[in-house]
Amino acid sequence: MLDLAGEADARALRVRADVEALPFADRSLGGAWARNSYLHVSRQCMPLALARLHWSLAPGAPLMLSVTRGDGEGAWPNDDFPGRFFCNWQPDRLRELLVGAGFDVERIEPDGDTLYASATRARTLPDTVGPGMGLLVCGLNPSEVAADAGFGFAGATNRFWAAALEAGVVTKARDPLHAFVHDRAGMTDLVKRATPRASAIAPVEYRDGAERVRRMVEWLKPAAVCFVGLDGWRIAVDRRAGPGWQPAGFGGAPAYVMPSTSGLNARTSRAELVAHLQAALSGEGSVA
Fold it and tell me: Is the pLDDT of residue 288 over 80?
């Protein structure tokens, strides 16, 4: 394949790499054509593989991707190369996967046993989630500052990373990939759309986003989920909720809700934020 690319265009830069560990600089690619490139990535590892692709692409870059249509994963019977691993997807699951990875999906078209997806790298953040998560941190939605920085809670006055370091949730600030790989802390948002302020999000967006996150929690089964920001939880789940462990949990996992870490929330001190994150990390909540 690399030789064919060179024959087609001698100027082509040819790189052999693992799609689960792309070696490209952030925002260095102007587009991606992934024809069956992700066939052999397991279902639970696909979110992080696509997050790496999101970071590699410039905002607005097009993505063309194809996968096999179907259910389940594993070896194919009567494969010409026995022992190979394949992962199959249905259109709705593939669409939700791409949305979580920070793509605006234009269409997903089935053609026999193949699904063809067309999408655009959105100005947002990808989920950094996968198997074996201890704590899944869920924000309200990315600010435009965070979307452009490539990591959540990026505002100059946001106290999340300082509090998360002190609480032991993460061991390196402002690096969601490090948090997932080394600290088993995943990150997502209720709403993927980036805005200057969370107040720009409509209630229906919070409710739809909560259902997306609920399905993710049911699928990936983190030990606990911490929702950062009471407003989104109250709008989407329980308007009377207070901070702390939520009696019913969320998606089958214990759920902790804490105040916003934004600098605008001056009522909550950094010490209080640290205490909330330590409580969430303890995983001592229960599911009714």
Answer: no
